[in-house]
Amino acid sequence: MGVTRLTRHMFLWSMAIIYMFAFASLYVQIPGLYGNEGVLPVRLVEPRVDGSRPVLEQIHAHPSLLWLGPWLGLDLDAQQAMELLCLVGALLALGAALLEPLRDSLVFFCLWALYFSLCQVGQDFLRFQWDSLLLEAGFLTVLIAPLNLLRCSTFRQHDGVTFWLARWLLFRLTFGSGVAKLASHCPSWWGLTAVNHMFEAQGIPLPLSWFIQQLPDWYLKLGTVGLLVTEIAVPPLYFAPIRHLRLAAFYIQATYQVKLMLLGNYGFLPFLSLALTFSLLDDDHISYWLGHSKKKRTKTWPQTIMSLLVVLAVFAVIIYGTKVLFTLEIDWEANTITSKTAFTQQQFGNWLKLVTGPTIWVGVLSLTWEVVAAMLGCVCVRGCLWKLWGLVQWAVFASAAVAVFAISVVPYSSMEQVYSSKILPEVRQAYKLVERYRLVSAYSLDSRMTGVDGRSEVILEGSMDKNTWTEIEFMYKPGNVGVAPPVVAPHQPRLDWQMSQAAQGLAKQSPWFTSLVHCLLQGNKDVVRLIQTDSAQYPFSQAPPVYLRASLYRYWFTQTTQDGSDPNEWWRRDYAEEFYPAVQLGGPTLEARLSQHGLKEKFPIQPSPDSPLAQVLRQVRGHVQTLPGHLVLWSLLATVATIWLLRTLLSGVLGGRKAKPTPAEPKAKKAKDQPAEKSASASSLKAERENSEESRRDADKSPKKRK
């Protein structure tokens, strides 16, 4: 693969932006989710500080930076410690997005440690797959980023090795998710009707989702075929030796992620997936985007034709295979394309057994190529000390890359049990040692499609007398059938997403729901702000309800009328069943469920400290608590965009900033270009001498000189 310096910078900048989104989105929700009177108070799960044990021993037993809270003068209940971690993470990420020197390995390690500490106590609200993906991608970023703050040499022949890990993660994410869809035996995926329900059943739909739902069924079925091909047939091209195949795979995956951004509120997941696709690019293509691509050494016409023929042959095979495996046929009379799966679940299982091992070996060969190429780059360096320094770096980072790849094989191979049993015991043992740090994970996004019989939604209702019930509307999730779906990405409303997940099962499978009911009966303002930041939109803002109950409804998008006009409402719904019985504060039913789920008080609430840091945190919280989360994130994004725009305008007005010389280019490059530099310097000296002689002759001829 070609030089990846620009693509690496793009990846690091993207990771800084994504971290900023993640920390800021979680920060605005901490009091309601994890506060002393929140849905899942962190003090109920946080390990208590034991003065008799060394701090390092306690951190090893329960790795989290929240241990530092008491030493910083924060409350022992860890709410303010969580807020501090989020604020520090958001500010660090904002700085890294704006300042290139802060896109440093140490900074990204701090960001990873901060987010990992939050996930350690995040419980149900921080156990989504995109949280695991951010932790894994964040750890890889530590290896990919340079050590700018330590002013280390930019001689980094190992960049290709560490950046390859992002490509391997992208492969595991896409290929693993695609395989899981069919391996789950979900009727919607096998019947090619998953996309027919996807836009309606997603966690928080977008307004555009309603319009996509109006498309004909045959077109949506074709979309299911395209999605499966994108996630199963295209990922092997990530490791293709031909550059144009990798670029084609990039554009296919990037288009898919942009589509997710436009058609659903998936938080930072599509942004993170898009950042990983940058590992498929090289600097020449980025320079082509920017309009100042350098002239490359041209291939001979036989090489160009051969490369083009191979690319066309690969995509011809993919298209033909898609037609055969999904029985694509054009119905010219109805102007439609019919499709259905032409293979059985047993045949797919046999194919999966056949390809799991080879895909791992393709990864081994691709990583070996990068490792050997990096080693040769170090050996070609001029100077013994530079060679030694380069080989030391290569050995360290190549070993780290091989170790990460080896342990990642364990969760990856879990999709096929026969091959999974063949993994070396030593590799499994290494995976178990680091499993608690979530360095690698298995991914199976949307493996089972829900909402086939209508989207399930839990509707909360409150009452003062148990006779008249009033619905409690959430800001983001569907409720009122006449309210349009919101646009909230990249904000991740954790409670709204969990409400959608809870609707897929029973209330006893979501213990936090009992705590939510308890908090609303108490009138906890922090929890109410998770539902509505505008108190005028909350029906019990003056006094909390005496009774609460929850019902399960089925929701469907409305359809356009026969005359083609749009309906007056976005949704239609039907009552399904009771989800949670009517309860009151102190009632036996509620008390029994609180005790059953371990939500009763274990520790008394500690008084709030009055340290300077605690006061600052309270001041910041006071300014932010009334703002909706999506507005906070959009404001941060607008701030970054404005600063970048001002910097661009100022650099244009001032004639552009002078190009800074690279502090230390790889010595191999210097050694290679040294003869050209010597000849250039010799010619420049000769030109200077000729110019000085001409100027002296002109001076002798001037009238003043003749006098």
Automatic annotation (TrEMBL):
Basic and acidic residues composition-biased segments: 666-676, 686-707
GO BP term, pick one: protein maturation
Domain spans labelled Lipase maturation factor 1/2 C-terminal: 439-581
Region (Disordered): 655-707
UniProt-annotated location(s): Endoplasmic reticulum membrane
Membrane topology: Multi-pass membrane protein
InterPro entries named in the record: LMF, LMF1/2_C, LMF1/2_N
Annotated TM spans: 12-30, 81-99, 106-126, 132-150, 218-240, 260-281, 301-322, 360-381, 388-412
Domain Lipase maturation factor 1/2 N-terminal as annotated: residue spans: 127-287
UniProtKB keywords: Endoplasmic reticulum, Glycoprotein, Membrane, Transmembrane, Transmembrane helix
Tree of life domain: Eukaryota
GO cellular component, one term: endoplasmic reticulum membrane
Family statement: Belongs to the lipase maturation factor family.
Function as written in the Swiss-Prot or TrEMBL entry: Involved in the maturation of specific proteins in the endoplasmic reticulum.
Protein name from the UniProt record: Lipase maturation factor
Annotated organism of origin: Salvelinus namaycush (Lake trout)
Gene name, Swiss-Prot/TrEMBL: LOC120031891
